[in-house]
Amino acid sequence: MEFEPLALSAGPYLDLQCEGGARLIGSECGDCGHRLFPTAAVCPNCMSENMKRLPLSRDGRVYSFTVLRQAPPGFESPSIIAYVDMPEGVRIFTHLDMQPGEPHCDMPVRLKPVAPKTDKLGRKVVQFKFAAVENA
Amino acid sequence: MRSVSIIGTGMMRFMKRDTVNMVDFAWPIVKAAIVEAGVDPKSIGAAYCGSAASGSMPGQRVLKRLGLTGIPISNVEGACSSSAIALRHASLAVATGECDVALAFGVDQLNLSGKTLVHGTEDWDFAYGLAMPGLYAMRAQRYMYEYGVTIEQLTKIAVKSKKYGALNPWAHFQQEVTAEQVMNARMVADPFTVLHCCPRSDGASAVVVCASDIAHRYSSKPVKIVSSVQRSGKMMTGFRDMTMPESTQRAARILYEQSGLGPEDIDVCEVHDAFTVNELLYSDALGFSKPGEAVKLLEDGDFDIGGRIPLNITGGLVSRGHPIGPTGIAQVVEMTHQLQGRAGKRQVEGAKLAMTHVTGGGVAGLDHGAVTIHILGV
């Protein structure tokens, strides 16, 4: 499956071919060690351009979530959205593959690639979600 | 730096105004501020317009109607903080001596442009499906989780907001609601029903400022800008504490240091309550309460008129409405009238020091793109 970057200046942020399964890809600064998601060409901590590819763990923890009853154009309504904290120290804005009422703060979750839908602008939206560990 | 005072105000009811062009409703508000100030329009040395969704040069488009042209006109965009930043810059123009009298105003017409904030296409969170109600709902979920705040308590904020909105002729919503109505309203983003959220409004607001040492020439009760701080949120890619908006906390510390005042000195305050939970978040961040304890002030009536720190007793953004651009100066107009004893049914008796706080959001990695806080005094 081909993935086009959704956020215009983000590099490839999902690698389905990683050893052990799909991974999200962030960046780590080769000079100061600062990490972020999605990838970046320059470090927001030290302005270094020596940025390395950083495959992230598959497992994270829901920091917070909500059920967005009217999602922005191109997205499914309702959208269950969340910030998920990863062991690498980065926080990811994502969607949850769950029903309303299921998610809670500090819930363990796992990356789950999903078949992307194409929005009106032809962008492939929501290429991954996070799911309860047993459903990922 | 010279001291600066507010000598004229212009304000209108915020509501859906999509049958006239915004220029047509904005110029009378600007003119009202100038007339109230009693200044010769020719003495205005600079103008600043805060607007977030009105296209190119809304300042020039409004001011040309009044022939107020030729002077430097600066258009300021800072999302919801736009006109508060415009006021700050107008004040700085006077404080630094560039001019003696300056104008600041805000204008937006969201219901005609059909837009609220336009987020960057490079911005991961918004490109991947985030919307502002969702962002604040996530703040609310975490705040409720960490501090055991209930939906019934958040609902009380909505009921309080509508109670004061009903007293405010400028409010978009002027009707009281019951807790039941709030709970049963259409869900927007859990835990927020639509009555927890500010409406999309249209409107304009304006103030005229001048050097404090000449303010009494114009106004019998000028209101001094005691302190003014503007900051941006810090870029953070890790585990931010979303229950404590760092930019507001940081700006407040600077403000208190600058002014030699503390949260206990403020008599009445307007915070950026685009959603109900914001009253709790910002009460904590501004130091009116310890982290997680704002809900006690709410329950004890300390956020009401007669309480320790009347908060958003104008109805705030949730009831007065939120046209984005004009919101910051609307808060300043309301607090100016409080300090002048002109606030009618929502008057806080004997108020001497008032605070206005407005953020500007919508940039991933920053808790808020902008935060602007003013302390006003008489």
Structure description:
The complex is a heterodimer of chains A (136) and B (378). Chain A has strands at 14-15, 23-29, 35-36, 51-55, 59-68, 79-85, 91-95, 108-113, 117-118, 124-125, 128-132. Chain A has 136 residues and is mainly beta. Chain A folds into two domains: 7-56, no CATH class; 57-136, OB fold (Dihydrolipoamide Acetyltransferase, E2P) (Beta Barrel). In chain A, the strands form three sheets. Chain A has a five-stranded antiparallel β-sheet with strand order 7-6-5-8-11, with no helix packed on it. In chain A, a hairpin with a 5-residue loop joins strand 2 and strand 3 (35-36). The relative contact order of chain A is 0.19. With 378 residues, chain B is α/β, with parallel strands linked by helices. Chain B contains 14 helices and eleven strands. Chain B has helices at 22-37, 58-63, 82-95, 110-113, 124-127, 132-147, 151-165, 179-184, 212-215, 246-259, 278-285, 294-299, 316-320, 327-339, and strands at residues 4-11, 44-50, 73-76, 101-109, 187-189, 192-193, 202-211, 223-231, 268-270, 353-360, 370-377. In chain B, helix 2 links the parallel strand 2 and strand 3 (73-76). In chain B, helix 3 packs across helix 14 (327-339). The radius of gyration of chain B is 19 Å and the shape is globular. The two termini of chain B are 19 Å apart. The A-B interface holds A 6-10, 34-38, 44, 63-72, 74-75, 79, 81-83, 85, 89-91, 93-95, 100, 104-106, 125-126 and B 121-131, 133-134, 137-142, 145, 186-191, 235, 237-240, 242, 364-365.
